[in-house]
């Protein structure tokens, strides 16, 4: 397992950044895991690592949970992630990822230049955000950017943002982990890695929370949007490069 120590270190960095950006590490963790494992195992590892990550955030940020938002966004997300995970082998993933990256980039860029603009957290916007993030999480392995954009648009306080996002994501990741396991995506070689990834997720979340105490609310929202923008650009570059190979 020595060859995976670099993977664990990068996973720790992704978890710290994921905590600071408010919506989890999957948007960074998936490209990292892809350097070491095949795509299906990456999906399985990401789902289980995120269960650990979300449990850590729920514990460390437990006073910030908004149950109303978590339920009205989380239940549609859980339903949608199962659908996305079940059809992941039947849709053109590269094309969908390109479209998603462009849409996320444009939306985040708009919100970055309108930091004081807030979206009312109506039932409709919560359900749509939950369905979108859940479906993409099941289909492509990450829906955190969509959920991050939705929660950022609501203007939630940073501790509420992180705790509520983690609670929603816990249901999503548990659901897709079950589907991925049934489809054989979680292989035996991963089981010995689980204790280390559990420790990595907790340590990364704790470090992120410690840093977050010194970050004002406006800067937190800016960080969220900048991470989303940079990641969408990176993903778009990767996919367009692969198309031309």
TrEMBL record:
It comes from the Bacteria. Keywords: Cell membrane, Membrane, Transmembrane, Transmembrane helix, Transport. It is a multi-pass membrane protein. The keyword Transport applies. Pfam families: TauE (PF01925). The keyword Ligase does not apply. GO terms for cellular component: plasma membrane. The chain crosses the membrane at residues 7-33, 39-61, 73-92, 98-115, 127-146, 190-207, 219-238. It is found in: Cell membrane. Its main location: membrane. PANTHER family: MEMBRANE TRANSPORTER PROTEIN, TRANSMEMBRANE PROTEIN YFCA. Belongs to the 4-toluene sulfonate uptake permease (TSUP) (TC 2.A.102) family. This is Probable membrane transporter protein. It comes from Pedobacter zeae.
């Amino acid at each position: 397992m020595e060859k995976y120590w670099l993977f664990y270190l990068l996973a720790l960095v992704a978890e710290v950044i994921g905590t600071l950006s408010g919506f989890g590490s999957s948007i960074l963790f998936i490209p990292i895991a892809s350097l070491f494992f095949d795509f299906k195992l990456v999906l399985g590892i990401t789902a289980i690592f995120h269960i650990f990550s979300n449990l850590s955030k729920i514990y460390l940020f437990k006073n910030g949970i908004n149950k109303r938002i978590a339920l009205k966004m989380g239940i549609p997300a859980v339903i949608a992630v199962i659908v996305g995970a079940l059809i992941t082998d039947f849709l053109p993933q590269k094309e969908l990822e390109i479209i998603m990256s462009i849409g996320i980039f444009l939306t985040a860029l708009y919100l970055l230049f309108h930091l004081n603009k807030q979206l009312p957290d109506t039932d409709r916007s919560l359900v749509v955000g939950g369905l979108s993030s859940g479906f993409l999480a099941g289909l492509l392995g990450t829906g955190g950017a969509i959920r991050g954009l939705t929660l950022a648009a609501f203007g939630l306080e940073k501790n509420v943002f992180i705790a509520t996002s983690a609670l929603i994501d816990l249901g999503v990741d548990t659901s897709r982990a079950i589907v991925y396991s049934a489809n054989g995506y979680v292989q035996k070689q991963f089981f010995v890695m689980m204790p280390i990834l559990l420790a990595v997720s907790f340590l990364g979340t704790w470090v992120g929370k410690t840093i977050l105490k010194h970050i004002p609310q406006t800067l937190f929202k800016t960080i969220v949007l900048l991470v989303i923008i940079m990641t969408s650009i990176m993903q778009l570059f990767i996919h367009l490069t692969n198309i031309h190979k």
